[in-house]
């Protein structure tokens, strides 16, 4: 498990992989998709498993929500997604934390909490990449160029639209809403559930009664433990059965990173639309 | 009370005002700010009260939320607002309803449900107009040019940002979220409360325990009755005491309309940013 600041990931993942160590990597996994390609290539070359530490992916609630979104009868067709992840960093955080330092985590809030928003949006679309990304025009950037707050709109070929906002500047919010033609799904603790042993999501539908229903999912282990368990299973399978490392996890990291890169590129271009280029990596 | 399609408002409000009738007008109040100026001028010239039928403004919950947003100690400074109002119109609605007919309500979803989103956003900022509006790039527009679904980002001089999405194409959602530096406010039934006799809003703050708290407000009358009551009070005051018509209500309508016009202009310009021009009306 590598929890180091993002700027150190390439060096230390490469070193770990070369020693035959499997890698569970803190997010954001890299400063760019190009860097992530090197990281993943090092893992592949050494036959070690790569997984990013996006813990909520391993919560059974996530599986339950996936089943609901995939149910055309109940949810209909996905049209709009909105996600917000913010917390108020406070003066000490905004001065001293590694996540506001250009040489450590230059992606700032976009890399830290925006990563979760982007992953959640991609998760909702079953990992279909948007065709275009347009950053919101008012990011807050500190004097060393680190993003403290930003937002973006994502556009898909079929007309789906997503928006997200991520920030270190407002009190904690971690919302995800997915609007379908027949119902919508909503939760306010998508990344870190309010409770450790159970979590819920809400469904709203004008076609059913009650209008709003709560769906609760019990978890016997915290999502972080479930993540480690899944990682350990993959590693055991490689060690015991000679399996190949699972490609799903590096692919999800790469898709998240290319969208994140596109948001950054849109900010850097003065808020022009940026096309999302599907990474070569994901098509092999 | 005039519930007619928007394209008939100017003609019938003018006729009513000339007969000395006070006007409670269904939203969207007009097809453009220019048209609304004529409507309000007709009311002023005849000394009659004008009020738009934005019913949730009269719910006591709205007063409670206003007090919370204005409380710097608890809420901090407002930074981000997000609002969504959608419902699934269904095939019959999308073919035959007045709100999808170019000659009746050409603003479509923007005028119908977008009106509420824009008003809610302005309400949250205490009616400070944004400086710029940028429409989202993927509106859905029917063959006669009526908006069925659209979104927008609004920018204020001081860095506040708001986004909204309105549509006839996804199942019912009516969300409002306001993010402050110290807490956030959230509700899922801002325009039409889930229950008739009480309504709640949620506050989330990383600086208090519990993280999320629910604030419930009882109303003895439905919000529609409270609206009519307030309108009747203003009219009684004009008739009984010779008061002048209250300027607050036409001003709020006009501010909502100029933002709505800017969103429409941004869509029509191919998604360019549009400056919001403060209406002359509001400065007199």
UniProtKB/TrEMBL annotation, chains A, B:
Signal peptide: none annotated. Residues 2-51 form the Gfo/Idh/MocA-like oxidoreductase N-terminal domain. Pfam families: GFO_IDH_MocA, GFO_IDH_MocA_C3. Belongs to the Gfo/Idh/MocA family. Residues 72-186 form the GFO/IDH/MocA-like oxidoreductase domain. GO terms for molecular function: nucleotide binding. It comes from Actinidia chinensis var. chinensis. The lineage of its organism: Eukaryota, Viridiplantae, Streptophyta, Embryophyta, Tracheophyta. This is Oxidoreductase. It comes from the Eukaryota.
């Amino acid at each position: 498990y590598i929890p180091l600041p993002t700027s150190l990931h390439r060096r230390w993942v490469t070193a770990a992989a070369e020693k035959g160590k499997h890698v569970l990597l803190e997010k954001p996994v890299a400063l760019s998709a190009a860097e992530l390609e090197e990281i993943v290539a090092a893992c592949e070359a050494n036959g070690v498993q790569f997984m990013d530490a996006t813990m909520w992916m391993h919560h059974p609630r996530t599986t339950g929500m996936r089943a609901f979104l995939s149910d055309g009868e109940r949810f209909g067709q996905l049209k709009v997604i909105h996600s917000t992840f913010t917390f108020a960093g406070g003066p000490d955080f905004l001065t001293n934390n590694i996540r506001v330092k250009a040489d450590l985590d230059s992606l700032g809030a976009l890399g830290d909490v925006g990563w979760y928003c982007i992953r959640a949006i991609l998760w909702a679309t079953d990992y279909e990449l948007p065709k275009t990304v347009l950053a919101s025009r008012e990011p807050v950037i500190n004097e060393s160029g680190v993003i403290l707050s930003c937002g973006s709109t994502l556009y898909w070929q079929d007309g789906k639209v997503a928006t997200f906002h991520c920030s270190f500047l407002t009190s904690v919010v971690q919302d995800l809403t997915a609007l379908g033609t027949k119902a919508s799904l909503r939760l306010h603790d998508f990344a870190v559930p309010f409770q450790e042993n159970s979590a819920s999501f809400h469904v709203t539908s004008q076609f059913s009664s009650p209008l709003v229903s709560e769906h609760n999912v019990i978890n016997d282990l915290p999502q972080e433990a479930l993540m480690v368990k899944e990682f350990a299973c993959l590693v055991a399978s490689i060690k015991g059965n000679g399996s190949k490392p699972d490609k799903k996890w590096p692919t999800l990291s790469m898709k998240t990173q290319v969208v994140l890169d596109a948001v950054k590129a849109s900010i850097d271009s003065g808020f022009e639309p940026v096309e999302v280029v599907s990474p070569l990596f994901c098509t092999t």
